[in-house]
Amino acid sequence: MKKKYLTIYDDLVKKIQSDVWPASTLLPSENELTTEYDTSRETIRKALNLLAQNGYIHKIRGKGSVVLDINKFSFPVSGIVSFKELAQQMNQTSETIVEEISVIEDKAVTDKLQPSEQSQIWKVVRIREISGEKIILDKDFFNADYVPILSKETCQNSIYEYIENDLGLTIAYAEKEIVVEEPTQEDRECLDLEGHSNVVVIKSHVYLEDTSLFQYSESRHRPDKFRFVDFARRVKN
């Protein structure tokens, strides 16, 4: 049986998505929601915390819960999250379209990943579609010393899931650079850019637990669909 706070969460998401509470407005108070759903305050708080975690609301102490603009998806800059995990968190319909899986010889990428002489580099190009719109173009390069085989099925599902669960490797950390670029011809052909003159590109070097660099990626995003979020804490000197 589904837990009550999850049922309440699902109902609140539907109401937010249908503009019962538009962006920048306040949700009803915890007391009002407790009465509306005939449940405890603790159950309502669990539902609200899940809404906040998934980017639907922002909780302000002493004021309440403000509805966020759900037309923009929160992309965690400091985390390492697969598209499958991100899509599940956003509670949106999604699809991955595999455009290319190939073995390449590219000096720039080889210089980054430095495969052994007997190894190779995988190139994977995937279009990410969310709610019927093609808004991310992912171009990933993997060192075959660590990822020896890649199938279309794996690329459609989750390469990170395959690496961690099937290959038994631990993905540890990444160095990321965020830049704004003019769309390439490939961007225009693969994404629903709708006249946008820029794309936001996240370039990542991703490392295993033993500090081995196994992946370089360029994730190209339609700029109106994402906000890139991080958590920062000030440390006083």
Automatic annotation (TrEMBL):
It comes from Salinibacillus xinjiangensis. Pfam families: GntR, UTRA. SUPFAM superfamilies: Chorismate lyase-like (SSF64288), Winged helix' DNA-binding domain (SSF46785). This is Trehalose operon repressor. One of its GO terms (biological process) is negative regulation of DNA-templated transcription. The keyword DNA-binding applies. The gene is treR. Keywords: DNA-binding, Repressor, Transcription, Transcription regulation. Residues 2-70 form the HTH gntR-type domain. The keyword Repressor applies. It comes from the Bacteria. SMART domains: HTH_GNTR, UTRA. One of its GO terms (molecular function) is DNA-binding transcription factor activity.
